[in-house]
Amino acid sequence: MKTSGGVHEFPHQLIEEAQENCHFTCTVEVHSRLPISHNPHSPIPPYPQIVHISAKETCNIYITDYTARTDLVPVAATIAPDALAGRVVRVALSDAQTEAAQALDAGDFLTVRNLRLRTAGGTLLSGRLGGDQRLLAKLNPKASGNAELRALLRRKEDLESAHCEPKQKKSKADRIARRAAA
Predict the structure, then answer these.
(1) What is the pLDDT of residue 59?
(2) What is the pLDDT of residues 3-23, one digit of tens each?
(3) Residues linked to residue 110 through DSSP beta bridges, in sequence order
(4) How far is 96 from 108, CA to CA, in rounded Å?
(5) In 3-state terms, what secondary structure has residue 148?
(6) In a 3-state reduction of DSSP, which class is residue 113?
C-alpha cells in the first residue's frame, strides 16, 4: 500500500478477486446510479438508469468489471439485465463521492480507488465508498494506454457475444425466394 496525494493506494484487482473488507482499486463500467431511498422494485424506465441526486443525499451506483462472483447482493432486473447477474456490484456512496457521482452516466468507464466490499446485513457483499478524496476517475475508452480498461472492454465484448444469438446467414437462394414471393 502506497500513498499518493494523501490517499492510500491499494492494489488493482478484479471484483472477482477482491477479498471481503479489504480495500482495492478497480476499473469498471457504470451501469446505473440511484438514490439510496429509491425502491429498485418500483417501475422505472429500463436500464441503464440515471436519476438526479442531490449532493447531500447518499446514493448507490451499480458498477461492473464483467467478472462474476456468487456472493454479491442481487440486483433487481429493473437495474441490470439477467446477463449481468452476479456481475454488477451495488456501491453505496457517501461524502464527496456522492457529489462526484453527479458527473457519471451509464456507460462511463472509471477507476475506483479504495473500494471495499462488505456484507450487507447477511453474507452477501456490496461496496462502500466515502471520504473527501477524489476516488472516482473517469477513463477514456478510446485511449490505448490503460491495460486494465482494455481488459475490461475485452471481457465486455466476450460477454456480449456469448449472450447474443448469432445472426443466421441467409443464403442467396433464400433472398431470391423472398423476392419471388413478394
Answers:
(1) 86
(2) 555 557 899 999 999 999 999
(3) 28, 138
(4) 19
(5) helix
(6) strand
Contact 133, 6 (CB under 8 A): yes
Place of cell 451509464: 106
The β-bridge partners of 26 are 112
pLDDT at 2 over 70: no
**Is the distance from CB of 36 to CB of 58 less than 8 angstroms?**
yes
Using left for φ > 0, alpha for ψ between -120 and 50, and beta otherwise, residue 121 falls in left
pLDDT score at 35: 64
Q: Rounded distance, CA 89 to CA 3, Å? A: 26
CB 61 within 8 A of CB 35: no
Given pLDDT bands bounded at 50, 70 and 90, which one contains residue 153?
Answer: very high
Number of H-type helices and E-type strands within the chain: 3, 8
